[in-house]
Structure formats: structure tokens, C-alpha cells
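Session log. Operator J.P. requested a structure for one protein chain; no other inputs attached. Running the standard single-chain path with C-alpha cell output.
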Amino acid sequence: MFQSYAPAIGGAPARGLTGKEVIEAIRHSAGFLPEVQLAYEPEIRTLWVTIKPELKPVFTLQLLDSLGKVQQAIMDLWSAPEDYHSAPVRFLAFRGTGPFFTLGGDLDFYLDCLAKNDRAALQEYARLSIEGAVRNASGLNGLVVTLSTIHAKAIGGGIDAPRSCNIMIAEEQASFVYPEIKFNHFPITAVAILSRRMGARAAERMLLSAEEMSAEEFMAAGGLEAVVPTGTGEDWIRKYAADSLPMHAAKTALFSAFNRRAGDLREELEHLGQIWTDCMLRLHPSAISKLQRIAQTQDRMLARVYQRQGEPSTSGSGRH
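Structure written below.
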């Protein structure tokens, strides 16, 4: 089935590919992609990636892996200079679904790793987080404009992946908070990602205070490009993509230039990843117990939310 799409991948015109063909090409290149859904809008040459974790709205190892595979597939398929004008994906946009955008990092996974003293697994989680952020910030090495829209509450380290994009917006009901400091923890990529947007002092205040910010407050602090009415985040991105198509080359070049001017993000994040791994493995038993209680509280909270909405609960992984 994939063979019929091969001419579009080898440098021949790809602009006329249907949405189904673009998604099939990406899936063929990327392989199994759990916890994400792909959609393509040819008129604005935009690939939508909807994050859909299976157990909890957290950034699982599987989700991070899938996001990285989608990024890599786009680069593998259409990054050759001769493919620029025909490449079907000019904008890579991330969105969420459900009552929360994210509850942050995968506490159940962390607890499993700590119980086993599994440094390698924690390092892999950090590596995937770092790789995804670097690619988002660089626009897949200048190939696309990366965008994200936040429709609901975003908690902890799960904010960093969408904020690493070139453009991040939020609907007015969204909110943002980093509670990690309360349980002797910190998000892997937050210091570098937030500092680039808000400045180091504002980022430090947000991470150390653990105070929740409204979308308007987060934008005022430098964390967002726009706050939009409820239900209009995706339409804002569609309009941005449509308006930006004629100047796509200039915008990707400028984003790449500003990304480079901000310093070596990969080097900084790799240092943070090492610090984070060491910090996790040094947690006192009392801090680990607190993580366990927080994970269990997440389960109960999600069960109540889904029950009110009449939806089947996806929480309660049983891993902690």
C-alpha cells in the first residue's frame, strides 16, 4: 500500500498528497505510534498531532517516544533541500483533549523506576523529553513552524513540550502551574524552556512558587503568544498557518536564528537531564511516599471528573 506514495518521498511533487497519504507515509516511516492521533489539513499544509495518553493525561514514555517518531519521520521524509517546495508539512501543531491538557510527568513510571533503582529507564525518559524539546525549538531543523494550543489546565513538566514549540497559545480557561518543588522534584526541561521565553528571573519565580497562573497571567509573564476565547485555539492556529504560508521560508529562518541566538539548547538540556536523574534517584523515602500519594490522588481526581462527565475512567494504572 505504501509503495503508491513512494514518488512523493523521493523528491517528486508531494503537494498534491491527500491527508490519508501524508499520514500513511508518516506512519510507515515512524512505525507504531501509541497515544497520539494524526490529522492533516492540506489547504494549510498542517499536520495535527493530538496527544491521547491511554491511562492518565500525563507524558508517558510511550507518548514521548511517539512524538519523537513523528518528528523524525517528517525530517526523514521531507528535509532534503530539493523537497522544500513540495513538502506537504509546513506546520506541525500539537493539541490535547479531555478535561486536562496534562497532569505533567508520569509519576507512576517514576515510582516504578525508583522501586527498581532503574537509572537507565529514567535516563531514557529524560533523553526523549530533551530530544522532543530540541526538535520543537528548532522547527525540526528549520523545516516547519511548530505550534501548540492548550485548552485546559496544564500541570508541571507536561507544559514544557508544547512551550518548546515556536508558537504556543492557550484558550482563556486554561491555567498553568509547576507544583514539583512541593515534593522535592523539578521538571526536566522547564528551566531552559521557560527561561528562553520568560527570562530566567520570571521562570525561577514560577518554578519556586508553585503558584497557579491563569492563561492571561502566563501570557503577561511571557509564556504565551496569545490567549484566545474558549473553543477557538485550533482555529487560531489554522488562521496563523494560512496567513504564514506565503512567508514560511522567512519565518522558519527567523525562528531558527532566534533559537540559535538563545544558546545551545541541547547541551543545556542534557545537563539538566543528568541533574534530574540524579535528583530522582536521591529522593528520600518520605519524598517517594509523597509521590505515591500524589499519584493516587490523581487517580481519584480523574475518576471523579470522568464520572461527572459520564465518561469511562482511564486513570488507575495500578503501577504504583
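Operator note: Residues 1-14, 314-320 have pLDDT under 50 and may be disordered.
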